[in-house]
Amino acid sequence: MKRYITAIILAAVSSVMAVSCMDFLKEDPKTFEQPDNYYNNEAEIRMGVNGIYSGTRMPLGSTGIGGCEVIIFNEMMCGYSYRTASPFSDLTEVLNLAISADNGFPAAPWSWQYSDINRANKMIDVLENKTDIDISVEKRNMYLGESYFLRAWMYSNLVRYYGPVPLLTKPTTGFNDAQVVPSSEADVFGQIIADLEKAETLMENEPWNSPEGRVSKGAVKAYLAKMYLTLAGYPVRDATAYQKAYNKALEVVRSGEFSLYPTYEAARLGYNVNGGEYLFSIQCMRDRYQNPLHMLSIPRKDGTLKPYISMYDATRPGGGWNPCTEFVNSYLPGDRRVANHAFYYTSQVSLDGTVTHDFAPAVYKYWDDECAQDGKSGMNFPLIRYADVLLTLAEAACAGGSTTDADAIDAWWKVHSRALPDDVKPASLSFDEVFRERIWEQAYDGENWFNMTRTRKAFDCVQGTVVDLIGYTAPEMSSAYKESDLLLPYPVEQVRLNPNLKK
């Protein structure tokens, strides 16, 4: 089913885009896929909703700079990573905490997310207002729930990257519709929460998990817990949301539908299984919609004769991101995440099996054996991990302090004990312990920058302590973080199109 969903996205995008016909056309060609003469049955609705899913690929989307997808910039902003591939000015701006409006990075999330927000708005409008669709109430609710969830997903990225952003909840039909004054962060988060709560209600009778990789009830509830936790932090700081995050995460945990893989190798090999540890993932395919992270994670080995460790070496440089030594050394002694071929690796046998190459620590989370052989990676990329749900439960219980709550401690312990099985389960838990575990566990998931900005905390990987983000200088950064560094500038081309975009 993964193949079906990914293969149909391109066709669905084309179908939905065809809706916006020129007003001066007096004819009404029945071959044009307009809302009035299309979306008449479940198959057509399914195609339209599938088109929205393309927006979830944003973390793997290009920033327009070779070998620097959005996820890589997220990790670079944390200050624990460096690049061995060719340097470029846009990355220098990131590491200098001086990102300009014409940097390639700010434009990428904006364009990816708003184009699919418009698709979501169109499908919500169709499903709520078109009464002659040949579709059951259950299926209508399911697709409507998916549309609300996906819109919330995309707005959650926009507001965490840029702060105040235009809040569009109706289909855009003309240029002037997009010239909107940005809404406050509180208002955008209010819409996100409302959309997720609406999706939860619509999908309450759906299964907890979707083997096909669609939005599921479990994904909706897990992301609602995460957004409640985000609402409790900066910039909104609604302390009442901690309890909501705790309750919703506990609901997911008590469902019994999800669990961690016993080993990190099993977790990596399980990326293509929708369920278990992975509640929602980007569905990738080897012949299209490939996952680029295998290639980007290959350590550079200049001067080494081919074959090296992967077929990608023959044509591409690798070295997109590497963990700095200070960060790898910050893991506790005996942590299985830093064992060779867990989250990281420092040696690998050459592709022809003749040489073992040694190198500085590199990211192994996305190593794909098939891709190493033929240069094609169809490995899914998880967007919601069960480990994140467990740590959300634990962090919400701590609420910035500490807790003796048994469910919270047990949730944290599931994550911690997989890495350090010989440790003793504690009787109480502090925010610092949960935050540290997050930074280690979610490294190279593309989430830690958001964890840092919503808490205004950082992990000082040299001292092994949790510190205030503002004023902290990360190992790979040239200066300390300031409040003004935590949001991206509006992309320069968007400012030209919409004069209301001002900070």
Tell me what the structure shows.
There is one protein chain. The chain has helices at 2-17, 42-52, 70-78, 89-95, 104-129, 137-162, 185-202, 217-232, 241-254, 264-269, 293-297, 325-330, 369-374, 386-398, 406-419, 431-441, 448-455, 492-497, and strands spanning 81-82, 278-282, 322-323, 344-349, 356-363, 381-385, 402-403, 429-430, 457-460, 465-468. It folds into three domains: 2-206, Serine Threonine Protein Phosphatase 5, Tetratricopeptide repeat, CATH 1.25.40; 293-379, no CATH class; 387-485, no CATH class. The strands form five sheets. A two-stranded antiparallel ribbon has the order 1-3. A two-stranded antiparallel ribbon has the order 2-6. It contains 18 helices and ten strands. With 503 residues, it is mostly helical.
Short description:
By secondary structure, this protein is mainly alpha-helical. It contains 18 helices and 10 strands. A two-stranded antiparallel sheet has the order 1-3. It has a two-stranded antiparallel sheet with strand order 2-6.
